[in-house]
Design goal:
Layout lengths: L5 E8 L5 E9 L5 E6 L4 H14 L4 H4 L5 E3 L1 H14 L5 H12 L3 H11 L4 H10 L5
Antiparallel strand pairs: 1-2, 1-4, 2-3
Helix pairs in contact: 1-3, 1-4, 3-4, 3-5
């Protein structure tokens, strides 16, 4: 049996069925959990990009709308985690959209590379600069 990181994603919805938050939990090989949560302000803005990542991983539409956690394999889980981590500190809506779409459009290999880089100091900042020029427009 091969050991892999484990990922699950919960799409929280408000009373009207709109996306209210997105939470991703990753469990490392050592059993350490990482939680990344995007709240109401950014969650709707990145929903399309996250949906693209999940759809490419074979996640059916009914799972997307379910209240149950979506279990993800290592590669799509890392891709989804990278997406949430990359947009989490951003404030400007235009930057959130550009970075989210850029991460969603990455190949599996590119997303895996950047996910590994994101664990290092300034790795996420380098990714954001690559995708949107550091917010300078």
């Amino acid at each position: 049996m091969s050991r892999r990181e484990h990922y699950s994603c919960i799409i929280g919805r408000d009373a009207d069925g709109r996306i209210a938050n997105i939470e991703l939990t990753a469990e490392s090989l050592e059993g350490v959990q990482r939680h990344t949560r995007i709240n109401a302000g950014k969650a709707p803005a990145i929903a399309s990009a996250l949906h693209e990542v999940l759809r490419d991983a074979g996640i059916a539409g009914r799972q997307w709308s379910s209240k149950r956690p979506i279990e993800l394999g290592q590669v799509p889980g890392a891709h989804a985690e990278l997406l949430l981590l990359a947009v989490k500190p951003l404030r400007r809506a235009d930057r959130v959209t550009v970075v989210a779409e850029g991460v969603a459009g990455m190949s599996r290999e590119e997303a895996s590379y950047w996910h590994a880089k994101a664990q290092r100091p300034r790795g996420l900042r380098a990714l954001r600069v690559l995708l949107d020029g550091g917010g300078r427009r």
